[in-house]
UniProtKB/TrEMBL annotation:
Its membrane topology: Peripheral membrane protein
Transmembrane segments: none
Organism for this UniProt entry: Nakamurella endophytica
Family: Belongs to the ABC transporter superfamily.
Domain ABC transporter residue range list: 11-246
Keyword Isomerase tagged: no
Entry's Gene Ontology BP terms: response to antibiotic
Localization annotation: Cell membrane
UniProt keyword list: Antibiotic resistance, ATP-binding, Nucleotide-binding, Transport
Pfam families the UniProt entry points to: ABC_tran (PF00005)
Protein name as it appears in the record: ABC transporter
Lineage of producing organism: Bacteria, Bacillati, Actinomycetota, Actinomycetes, Nakamurellales
Keyword rRNA processing attached: no
Amino acid sequence: MGRPGDRPSVITARGLRKSFEVKGGATVEAVRGIDLEVPAGQAFGFLGPNGAGKSSTMRMIACVSPRTSGELRILGRDPAVDGVAIRARLGVVPQQDNLDEELSVRENLFVYGRYFGLPRARCWQRADELLEFAQLTEKSGAKVENLSGGMKRRLTIARSLMNEPEVLLLDEPTTGLDPQARHVLWDRLFRLKQQGVTLILTTHYMDEAEQLCDRLVVMDGGVLVAEGSPAELIAGYSTREVLELRFVPGEQTAAEPLVAGLVERVETLPDRLLLYTPDGDRTLAEVTERGVRPVSALVRRSTLEDVFLHLTGRSLVD
C-alpha cells in the first residue's frame, strides 16, 4: 500500500486554515492548521463527527471556498490562482444528488459534458461509455425521477466523470442506500481507482472507509487527530479484539469492579461493557472465573468504529 512520498502528490496542504464569521460577528475556525498529503491513485478518506471540519476542507480542495491561510496545492497548482484550471481536472459528487429530473438519464450526462466544452459527438460517446460503466445503459432513455436511489447515485458519479477527472471528490457517497446498492457503488469506485483516478471521500460509514480507503485521517474540532491506513489506525488506537458483555440495562455497573484490571481499557454503555483485549477468549474465561454472568458475551475483532469512538467520543455534536 502506497504512503505519502511513494507517488506524486495530488493534494498537499501545510498549516491549512479556514475561518468564517457567523451571526453576531463571531469568528468560527472550522479548520485549524492541518497538514495533508494525498498521493496520486489512492483512495483517501476523511472521518470525523459533524462539525469536525471535513466539509470545509473538501470545499477548499474543490476550489469553491478560499483558504483563510496556509498552503494548499491541488495537482501542483494554487487554487487561489488557478481555480478554474484545477476544477476542470476534478470530479465532484455532492452529498445530495442534484440531477435534472426532467431530462433523461443520457441527457443529464450530455448537458454536463457541454458545460466543460466537450464537442457534441464526444459528449454522446462519453455518456454511453459512462452509462455502461455505471450499469445504467438500459435506463438511458428513462427520466431521472423514475430511478431508484442507487441508480441516481450511480448516475451522479457517472456525471462527475464526464470530463475524465484525475481526482474525484465524494461527499458521503452512499448515504441512504440499501446494502446491495452500496456494494454496487463500492465496486464502481474500486474500478475507478484501478484506472488511476484518485478518490477523496468523506463518509460516516466505518465499514465503507475500511473497504474503500488506502489511507484515512480522523478530524475533530478542525484538527487531525490520527492518520494512517485502516489497519494502522486499528493497531495504533485499539486492540486486536473486543469482548462485549451484555447485561440487563443497569446491571452492568455491578460488574465493573469485577472486571477492573483485566484489560487496559473498559468502556461502559447502558446495557454492556466493552473490554478491549488482545485475546477475547482468554479475557472471557477470566471474566467468568471472577463470577461475572452477562446475558450474552461476544468476541469480535476491533474495527474502525472502535477507533473513531475512542478518538472523538460517543457524545453527539450539534
